[in-house]
């Protein structure tokens, strides 16, 4: 009997050690960090793009929504830094190619629709593509944080995911109440 107890104690201790390090030293954790770096850069790119879109917007409601989201985006950057700190990690430098492409597409829409009544509708469409990308990214990061037991990171990421969803809903509201009607009227 004592032999079994020693063995089961060793297995139990090893199991506890494995579960403690499981959240930090595995391929999912490395992927998580890589995606954090990616969305960190995406948010940084967005802080440069949103002021241009707000300036191009024709309706005050859209301009205000974009300016409000710029403030939130700056907070998202800060929160991502907090996520890294909570894990005792540093965010690496990475360029988010997806956001770069989405921003280029938004710039193209602004140029093409510059003198059109559909300008705001086009800006909203471009912004909602960005929001959906961000919602998907933060949703994935939340799932991974939960899986790995990164509770503080999960709390921070979930807050950002909720704000991205609210921004998307606000854009839908502006589209349905103002921009789409204006685009159709001319």
Concise account of the structure shown:
With 186 residues, the protein is mainly alpha-helical.
Taken in chain order, the helices and strands follow as HHHHHH
- Contiguous helical run count: 6
Average pLDDT for all residues: 87
Rg, rounded, reads 22 Å
Mind describing the biggest β-sheet?
none
Gross morphology? elongated
Instruction: Give the end-to-end Cα distance, rounded to a whole number of Å.
Output: 87 Å
Percent of residues in β-strands: under 5%
* Class by SSE composition: mainly alpha
Count all strands and give the number: 0
Q: Give the uncertain stretches in residue-range form.
A: 1-22
Oligomeric state of shown chains: single chain
Helix content: over 70%
Topology, element by element:
Elements: H1 2-22, H2 27-56, H3 60-86, H4 97-112, H5 119-148, H6 151-185
Helix pairs in contact: 2-3, 2-4, 2-5, 3-6, 4-5, 5-6
């Amino acid at each position: 009997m004592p032999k079994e107890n020693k063995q089961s104690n060793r297995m139990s201790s090893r199991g506890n050690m494995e579960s403690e390090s499981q959240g930090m030293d595995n391929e999912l954790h490395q992927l998580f960090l890589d995606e954090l770096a990616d969305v960190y850069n995406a948010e940084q790119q967005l802080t440069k793009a949103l002021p241009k879109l707000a300036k191009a917007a024709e309706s005050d409601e859209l301009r205000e929504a974009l300016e409000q989201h710029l403030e939130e985006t700056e907070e998202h950057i800060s929160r991502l830094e907090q996520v890294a700190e909570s894990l005792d990690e540093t965010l690496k430098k990475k360029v988010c190619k997806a956001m770069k492409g989405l921003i280029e597409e938004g710039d193209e829409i602004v140029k093409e629709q510059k003198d059109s009544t559909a300008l705001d509708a086009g800006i909203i469409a471009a912004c909602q593509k960005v929001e959906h990308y961000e919602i998907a990214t933060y949703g994935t990061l939340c799932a991974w944080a939960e899986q790995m037991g990164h509770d503080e990171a999960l709390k921070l990421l979930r807050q950002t995911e909720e704000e991205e969803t609210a921004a998307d809903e606000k854009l839908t509201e502006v589209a349905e109440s103002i921009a789409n009607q204006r685009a159709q009227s001319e």
